[in-house]
Amino acid sequence: MISVILAILKIIGIVLLCLLGLLLLIILAVLLVPIRYQAAGSAAEKEIHARAGISWLLHLIQVKLELVNQKAGITVKLFGIPIRRMGTLFESAENEENPDSGNSSRKTDSEETGKNAERQRTDSNSETRIPKISDEVLESLPMEKNVLSEERKADRTQPAVRTVNRQKESTSKSEEEQKPQKEKNPESAAEAKKAGKAQRNTDRGRQRAERTKQKEEHAKRKEAQKEQKIQQKEEKRRRREKQREKLEDFLDQIQNPENQRAFRLVRTQTGKLLLHILPTRLSIQARVGLSDPAATGMLLGAFYALYPIYQDHIRVTGEFETEVLEGSFRLKGRIRIGSLLMIVFPVIRDKSVRRLIKQVFRR
Fold it and tell me: Where are the transmembrane segments (predicted)?
């Protein structure tokens, strides 16, 4: 019985050791195996071709980005097998490979429109084929059918009679309107004059009241604008005072010897971090020109800031009069997570840096 228990414990211990070893192997792979990145591209006559990729653990996980004339595509691979593709580049390629799909849909649409047009033509022809019966034919028909022709004639004559009656009514109305106003009573004319004067007086009173209201509103607006300007000036003054206080506090912190030590440590570790992240191989050969000469100068300055590191591998010429983008580039680099932790860990461990971070976040 004891031997069986010991055998079971032995198997459990072996399994646990295997799991711990596998976990340790994964941790070491994540910390020590670098993440490699590379990119290459060329530009000539407004045609841009560029490729970039990131891989880890002998291309176990791989991400590729491709750019061709403002069309981009991203591919994600696992063990060399593409698991996801997305982007306008792949969509355009699929449309080029399967052009019949669009044509078939267009054909079906055109066939449907043709069928509808034929149906409409047949309907119109069926309507136009119905012959019209003339008056002579109606007269030759029996008496019961001639009644219909008489009714139609009466219907034709009715509009003319209506127009004549309307003209008579309009003439009678115009004559009534053109009667002289002398026939009216003089009392009604005097009352109308008095009513007109009273209406004018009321209108003048209303206009005066509206003018006074407008003046009062204008004065209130001016006062509100003055108060708003005063408040804006006070806010600006407060902001300036706060900025001065922050600047003075920052200068005090810089002059503090403990903070100076923290700044020196952060500066050195930041330089190491940049050197580790920057590409190990870089070559640029280009001719660049922007629409603005100042922007062209700034771009050239950014390129040649890397000259002390890569020296003759960077050759960029500027065109200050024309807009040009021609050339090619290549770069390769790697990033180790373990190295990043080794660079960042001394900064986090330092007490002066932690104190400085606390002071900054409190403010």
Answer: 7-33
Q: What own/partner pairs with CB < 8 Å and gap ≥ 24 does 171-178 have?
A: none
Q: What is the dihedral of CA 55, 57, 58, 61, to 10 degrees?
A: -50
C-alpha distances in Å from residue 152, one per residue of 136, 160, 165, 174, 179: 13, 14, 21, 35, 43
69 phi-psi bin (left φ>0, alpha ψ -120 to 50, beta other): left
Residue 331: count other Cβ atoms within 10 Å of its Cβ. 19
Q: In what order do the strands lie in the sheet with 61-68?
A: 81-87, 72-78, 61-68, 47-56, 35-44, 324-335, 281-289, 314-318
- Residues 12-47 have pLDDT tens digits of 999 999 999 999 999 999 999 999 999 999 988 778
Q: Are strands 324-335 and 314-318 parallel, antiparallel or unpaired?
A: unpaired
Alpha-carbon distance of 353 to 363, in angstroms, equals: 16
User: What's the whole-model pTM score?
Assistant: 0.56
- SS3 labels along the chain: CHHHHHHHHHHHHHHHHHHHHHHHHHHHHHHHCCEEEEEEEEEECCEEEEEEEEEECCCCEEEEEEEECCCEEEEEEECCEEEEEEEHHHHHHHHHHCHHHHHHHHHHHHHHHHHHHHHHHHHHHHHHCCCCCCHHHHHHCCHHHHHHHHHHHHHHHHHHHHHHHHHHHHHHHHHHHCCCHHHCCHHHHHHHHHHHHHHHHHHHHHHHHHHHHHHHHHHHHHHHHHHHHHHHHHHHHHHHHHHHHHHHHHHHHHHCHHHHHHHHHHHHHHHHHHHHHCCCEEEEEEEEECCCHHHHHHHHHHHHCCHHHHHHHEEEEECCCCCEEEEEEEEEEEECHHHHHHHHHHHHHCHHHHHHHHHHHHC
